[in-house]
Design a protein that fits this description.
7-stranded mixed beta sheet; Purple Acid Phosphatase, chain A, domain 2; binds fe (ii) ion; 8 helices; alpha+beta
């Protein structure tokens, strides 16, 4: 403890901000391992550097980062990657924009810059800074412009003790899928929407990973805060922290969006608000000329896996559309358990009624969508196995490595130490029909 206080004082003095770290006395939220608040303060050097998935990943990258407020310039330098240091002279500069963010720890400046007109399937090196204080050169890669096999990783809620307990999960995912196209986060990245320390822990846990692999994230209920009008609104951190597409309905920029990536369409829906507007938008987005695979992510599961929870309204709003439009896979969070469904089509009624219907039809589930709930952080809820679940897990932190090929989607759920817990494939036949093949033994139907 004495050493920690010394470090805090040293940082506060060296940083010249006159801010002493204070201990967090909220025992519900105190990280099991944590730094003094002073170590989460911004400096002139870029930190919290994050690539976000863009709507044109073949030709564009988008980067966000943070500095202290006085750092006003937002510069991105980028060059085609080379094996030696001579790329530096070929780097071009792009000017970005910035915005001040007042957090519970003070004021920070968040920067955003884009490089467009890039070549598809090409490795680039980029750095960000103000012209004097620079990040390291970070390597990333644009997507191919056509359908081509790729891998991505999906995480359920990280949320709690992110530094202490989520770091090993995201790092093992990187060890298993170091060339992933992106890491997908299905909401509740952190626990308290406006806690600067918790956003700092998220970046500390993921380290350099999102400097090289873009994030694709959808907001959970823990990214929502109480607004001045008493209602719920998106965390002030969300939009400065990421640079997601803004093509969704008004009021849902960077939370409701769609991207096409090498033959698959990914859609983020914001299950916290404006469900009706998104239902209409979804019908428009998915009904145009869609790529082979359709994968949707949002936070609140339409087939709840935790005991005594149901989201019937969301299910009735969105599942008929998923059926009509042929969505293959839905990736969710919120219930702090793991559950993966067989292929399901819409059944009206409560979850109990759906379970009865699914229990009867179990053997004929050769159409419909696979629904997954997962959790990557340490907070756990009780689970009750139900017919809408093909398989499940309790008290297990997981990450999912999903590989996408033109005629096959291969899914693996791995626990925090990298052991395979669940695996299946969706195989697309020449006539467009799809079949699900389980690659691990299934538990008995409840
Ligand atoms: Fe959660």
């Amino acid at each position: 403890m004495f050493a920690r206080v010394l470090v805090a004082v040293a940082v506060a003095v060296v940083g010249g901000r006159g801010v002493l770290a204070h201990e967090d006395h909220d025992h519900d939220h105190t990280p099991a391992v944590g730094w003094p608040d002073a170590l989460y303060l911004p400096t002139p050097f870029p930190d919290r550097i994050c690539l976000s998935i863009t709507a044109d990943a073949a030709h564009e990258i988008a980067v966000t980062w943070r500095t202290e407020p006085a750092t006003e310039a937002s510069r991105l330098e980028i060059a085609v990657a080379e094996g030696g240091p001579d790329f530096v002279g070929k780097a071009v500069r792009r000017e970005g924009t910035s915005t001040l963010l007042t957090t519970d720890l003070g004021v920070a400046r968040y920067h955003e810059a884009r490089a467009s007109g890039l070549e598809p399937a090409t490795r680039y090196l980029y750095r960000v800074g103000d012209g004097e204080h620079w990040s390291e050169w970070c390597q990333t890669e644009t997507s191919a412009a056509e359908a081509k096999p790729f891998v991505f990783v999906y995480f359920g809620d990280a949320q709690n003790d992110v530094r202490s307990h989520w770091s090993r999960v995201v790092r093992n995912a990187f060890r298993d899928a170091p060339r992933a196209a992106f890491f997908l986060h299905a909401g509740d990245l952190i626990n308290r929407a406006e806690s600067d320390r918790e956003w700092g822990e998220w970046f500390e846990a993921s380290g350099f990973i999102h400097r090289t692999i873009p994030a694709l994230a959808t907001p959970g209920n823990h990214e929502m805060a109480r607004g001045d009008d008493g209602g719920r609104r998106l965390s002030h951190h969300w939009r400065p922290t990421f640079a997601f597409p803004e093509q969704g309905p008004e009021g849902l920029a960077e939370t409701c969006y769609a991207i096409d990536y090498q033959g698959a369409r990914f859609i983020s829906l914001n299950s916290n608000e404006q469900v009706a507007e998104q239902t209409q938008w979804l019908a428009d987005v998915l009904s145009d000329d869609s790529p082979t695979w359709k994968i949707v992510t949002f936070h609140h599961p339409i087939f709840s896996s935790a005991k005594g929870r149901d989201n019937q309204q969301l299910r009735e709003a969105w599942q008929p559309l998923f059926d009509r439009l042929g969505v293959d896979l839905v990736l969710q969070g919120h219930d702090h358990t793991y559950a993966r469904s067989p292929r399901l089509t819409f059944q009206p009624g409560s979850l109990e009624e759906v379970n009865v219907a699914v229990g009867r039809q179990r053997q004929q589930s050769d159409t419909g969508t696979v629904y997954v709930v997962s959790v990557s952080g340490p907070k756990m809820y009780d689970l009750e196995p139900q017919p809408v679940m093909a398989t499940w897990a309790t008290r297990t932190q997981l990450y999912q490595v999903i590989s996408v090929e033109p005629d096959r989607l291969s899914y693996r759920a791995l626990n925090a130490i990298g052991d395979v817990h669940d695996a299946f494939r969706l195989e697309r036949a020449a006539d467009g029909s799809t079949s699900l093949i389980n690659d691990v033994e299934q538990p008995d139907t409840p």
